[in-house]
Amino acid sequence: TDGCGSMSAVREVSQKMGILHTYVPPHMQSLNEAEKVVDRVFAAARTHMLHKQSPNILFADCVEYVVYVDQYMATTPSRGYLTPLELLSGEQPSMHHLVPWCTPCTVTAPKKKRDKMRQNGDVVSTGEQGHFIGYQSSNSKVYKVLLSGNRVVHSINVTFDFENSSPKVPMQCAPNSEEAKIDIDLQWSKQSEEAP
Q1: Are 159 and 105 spatial neighbours (Cβ–Cβ below 8 Å)?
Q2: Beta sheet of 104-108, edge-to-edge order
Q3: pLDDT at 177
Q4: Where are the alpha helices (DSSP H) in 23-136?
Q5: What is the pTM of this model?
Q6: Which of 3, 52, 91, 92 is 20 to 30 Å from the Cα of 124, by its Cα?
Q7: Which parts of the chain register pLDDT below 70?
Q8: Is 50 left (phi over 0), alpha (psi -120 to 50) or beta?
C-alpha cells in the first residue's frame, strides 16, 4: 500500500495471515501492481471507446466489458498461458459468445412487443435495433444491448451485424445528461440509416 492510512486494515490482515506487507514509496504508484491492472483496464476501455467513437457516458459499461473479456484471455508463461477462468475451474472456457464492443445488433422482441409494432405499422421487423455494450454480469453469457431511448435490455436472442460494425459517424454527447441521451439516439440512428 502507499501508506496513506486508508489501507491499514489490509496491512493488519496481511500481517495476521503471514503475508509480507510493504509500503510503496510516495508518488510511485507505478510500483503498485493493483494500480497497473486498473491502468491497463482503463487503457483498453479507452481504446475500445475511441475505436468505435462511443459517447463518454458508456465508459463504465466499456470498463465492465474489458474486465469480462479479460477473464477469457491467456495469461503469462509462468501460468501456462491459461485463462483466469481456466485457472479457477480447470476447464477451458468457450469464447464463441464474445462479441466486439458496440457492435450493431437486433434484439428479438417478445411476442407482445411484436404485436404492438405491427399495430403501429411495422409489419416487417421482429426486433429492435441497438448496440452491444457488454454482458449481464461477470459470469453470464446474456448480452447487454443499448436500444433507442437509452433503454438497456438483456437478452440471448440477439443477432449481430458484424459487417457494419465499424464506426461511420463520430458520436458526441451534449453536457446535459438528457441532451446526451437524445444525442446518442440521433447519432446511432444516423449510423443505421447510412449503413448499406
Answers
A1: yes
A2: 152-155, 143-147, 127-135, 104-108, 158-160
A3: 46
A4: 33-52, 59-70, 84-89, 111-119
A5: 0.70
A6: 52
A7: 1-6, 26-31, 123-124, 166-196
A8: alpha
Beta bridge partners of 116: none
* Non-local CB neighbours of 158 within 8 Å, separated by 6+ positions: 105, 106, 107, 108, 132, 143, 145
Residue 181: partners with Cβ closer than 8 Å, 6 or more residues away = 149, 150
Cβ-based burial of 14 (10 A; exposed 0-12, middle 13-18, buried ≥19): middle
* Cα(108)–Cα(104) distance, integer angstroms: 13
**Model pLDDT, residue 51:** 92
Helix then strand count (H, E) for the chain reads 6, 5
Residues 157-175: tens digit of each pLDDT: 999 988 877 665 444 343 4
